[in-house]
Amino acid sequence: MADKVCGICMNAFLDRELDPEYDSSSVCLDSVNGVSVLITSGSLYSPPVFIEIMQWNEKHQQNFTLMKIPLRYCPFCGRKIEENTPYLK
Ligand SMILES: [Zn+2]
Questions:
Q1: Cα 55 to Cα 46: distance, rounded to the nearest angstrom
Q2: How many angstroms does the Cα of residue 58 sit away from the middle of ligand 1?
Q3: Is the model's pLDDT at 1 over the cut of 60?
Q4: Separation of 39 CA from ligand 1 center, angstroms?
Q5: Do 53 and 67 form a contact (C-beta atoms < 8 A)?
Q6: How far is the CA of 15 from the centre of ligand 1 (A)?
Q7: Angle made by CA atoms 35, 36, 41, in degrees to the nearest 5
Q8: Which of 40, 47, 49, 61 has its CA 20 to 30 A from that of 24?
Q9: What is the pLDDT of residue 74?
Q10: Across 42-48, average pLDDT
Q11: Residues, Cβ < 5 Å to ion ligand 1
Q12: How many whole angstroms from 75 Cα to the centroid of ligand 1?
């Protein structure tokens, strides 16, 4: 892979040393009225790198995912996320 990988888009699909169950990362970009926008990478059963929109549920006292949007490029380093290709429409 020619492109450089940053700490945001690095994931277990690129580095087999990483465990997709434990080595996932989330960076919160913004949060308004209980709705948060994150970039999550490397989590199991999800696209390798995606934007995640979560909403805080007061009754259950936890966040629920509303949407997962796979990314074509990393918004931080600009790398083309080849490993997301099967998830892109
Ligand atoms: Zn990146």
A1: 18
A2: 33
A3: no
A4: 10
A5: yes
A6: 14
A7: 145
A8: 61
A9: 95
A10: 85
A11: 6, 8-9, 74, 76-77, 79
A12: 7
* Position 39 pLDDT exceeds 90: yes
Give the torsion through C-alpha atoms of 80, 32, 89, 71, to 10 deg: 10
- State the distance from the centre of ligand 1 to the C-alpha of 74, rounded, in angstroms: 5
Q: End-to-end alpha-carbon separation of the chain, Å? A: 23
Name residues whose C-beta falls within 8 Å of residue 32's C-beta, 6 or more positions apart in sequence: none
Q: Which pairs count as long-range contacts for 38-47, CB under 8 Å and 24+ apart, including other chains?
A: 39/8, 39/71, 39/75, 39/76, 40/68, 41/8, 41/9, 41/10, 41/11, 42/10, 42/11, 42/12, 42/13, 42/18, 44/20, 47/71, 47/84, 47/87
